[in-house]
Design brief:
Low-confidence stretches: none
Order of helices and strands: HHHHHHEEEEEEEEHHHHHH
Structural class: alpha+beta
CATH class of the largest domain: Mainly Alpha
Shape: globular
Number of domains: 3
Mean pLDDT: 93
Strand content: 5-15%
Radius of gyration: 21 Å
Distance between the termini: 37 Å
CATH architecture of the largest domain: Up-down Bundle
Number of strands: 8
Helix content: 40-55%
CATH topology of the largest domain: Butyryl-CoA Dehydrogenase, subunit A, domain 3
Bound molecules: flavin-adenine dinucleotide
């Protein structure tokens, strides 16, 4: 058992670390746009293109499509560094849509989408949830009717983040009402500029924007279908296992900032604060081990459903404990936002305090993931 990276992997990690360290303006620009609620703006696209030039957005993909043909562990190294420096560690195109296109897409889809995803030129947004289909995704109702030479789409999506700046909707739609509900779902790629689509903002309590998306007699070509009709649910479940991989770089950085503040402010001599900080250090270490466990499974070609779910629960709940503890340590000033001159550490932990709640819901709620662990990991019968 060896938890160390190999010398080549360490060298690569150092190279990625130095890249971000040498780009403070682009990193700050990203944080400004993202935490300002805007999503991807010009500074984010500029950063993504730079990463794309190095092929670091898709290092495991074949060279033909803009990758480096590297083992999975290199992708995780990049994700950890991205998470540490900017908080974002993956795009929907690179982490979810791209891998499914690579596996199940047509040659035309691969040639058209994959190189542009790899270059950091386009982004997708996830079109799964609907007002009556969140955890129970198989219940989704947005219809895609086969009209011979095109599909006609009608219905509503909700909580579809990134649709206001992404170019493409990675859309799950119902193509059949026959048989089990999950067998009637298909996946489509829809250009968000197609007539009949309207997008309205849905603001979360952390100030980040997500969206309602309405489809009103939207015509899409037959070539928009990804993979086999009726197989969408399976593709989504596989891609979700990858989406639930949660790097801890961002939390590590927050913890380092907190530790520095505690040392400089003299609060480190308080016995209660010492206990809390030591506890957080332990939990962060457990998070890192969870992540390595997932990476190890993926490196062996295993889809880590059980491991990734356990990691997602523990890591996001640790983030919540981290934010909770910090806001308590800071006292009333800990509740001030970044536009207050009395805030602590630029109000970052106040923001994380609110944002950490959404993390427990998006990418699958903690309750649903515990159910999956009970059933698929521990062999308990489905209720
Ligand atoms: C900030 C944010 C961003 C999001 N971004 C996207 C996106 O980009 N694309 C997208 O498609 N979706 C997105 N979502 C939607 C997200 O995936 C759903 O909110 C989530 O799956 C829960 O679905 P729901 O909101 O319908 O809640 P429900 O499914 O109605 O659940 C409500 C509560 O009941 C619990 N519950 C439900 N069923 C069970 C059960 N069987 N056992 C135990 N407890 C249960 C849940 O855990 C939850 O606490 C986002 C959500 C948020 C908050």
């Amino acid at each position: 058992m060896d938890f160390e990276f190999s010398p080549e992997e360490k060298k690569f990690k150092q190279e990625v670390h130095q890249f971000f360290q040498s780009e403070p303006e682009l990193c700050a620009g990203f944080m400004e746009e993202w935490h300002g609620g805007e999503g991807f703006g010009p500074k984010t696209w500029a950063l993504l293109r730079k990463l794309g030039e190095k092929h670091w957005l898709t290092p495991t993909w074949p060279k033909k499509y803009g990758g480096l043909d590297l083992p999975y562990v290199y992708y995780c190294i990049i994700q950890e560094e991205m998470s540490y420096w900017i908080g974002l560690y993956a795009c929907i195109g690179t982490a979810m849509a791209g891998p499914v296109i690579l596996k199940c897409g047509t040659e035309e889809q691969k040639d058209f989408y994959l190189p542009r995803i790899a270059r950091g030129e386009i982004e997708f947004c996830l079109g799964y949830s609907e007002p009556q289909a969140g955890s129970d995704l198989a219940n989704l109702q947005l219809r895609a009717e086969d009209k011979g030479d095109y599909y006609l789409l009608n219905g509503q999506k909700t909580f579809n983040t990134r649709c206001h700046f992404a170019q493409y909707h990675w859309l799950a739609a119902r193509t059949s009402s026959e048989g089990p509900k999950y067998r009637g779902i298909s996946l489509f790629i829809v250009d968000l500029k197609t007539p009949g689509i309207s997008i309205t903002p849905l603001m979360t309590f952390s100030g980040e924007r997500t969206n309602d998306v309405f489809y009103d007699d939207v015509k899409v070509p037959k070539s928009s279908l990804v993979g086999e009709p009726g197989m969408g649910f399976y593709y989504i479940m596989e891609a979700l296992a990858y989406e639930r991989v949660t790097p801890v770089g961002a939390y590590q950085r927050l913890f380092e900032q907190l530790l520095e503040y505690i040392k400089e402010s003299g609060k480190g001599s308080d016995p209660v604060i010492r206990q809390k900080i030591a506890q957080l250090a332990i939990e962060l270490e457990v998070c890192k081990l969870f992540t390595l466990n997932v990476v190890s499974a993926q490196s062996k070609g295993i889809i880590p459903v059980y491991e990734a779910n356990a990691a997602k629960i523990f890591i996001t709940e640790t983030e919540q404990r981290l934010a909770n503890t910090v806001v308590n340590i800071f006292g009333l000033r800990g509740q001030l936002q970044r536009d207050s001159k009395w805030n602590v550490l630029n109000g970052m932990f106040e923001f994380i305090y609110r944002q950490s709640l959404t993390e427990l819901i998006m990418r699958g709620t903690s309750e649903i993931l515990r159910n999956v662990i009970a059933q698929r990991g521990l062999g308990l019968k489905r209720r």
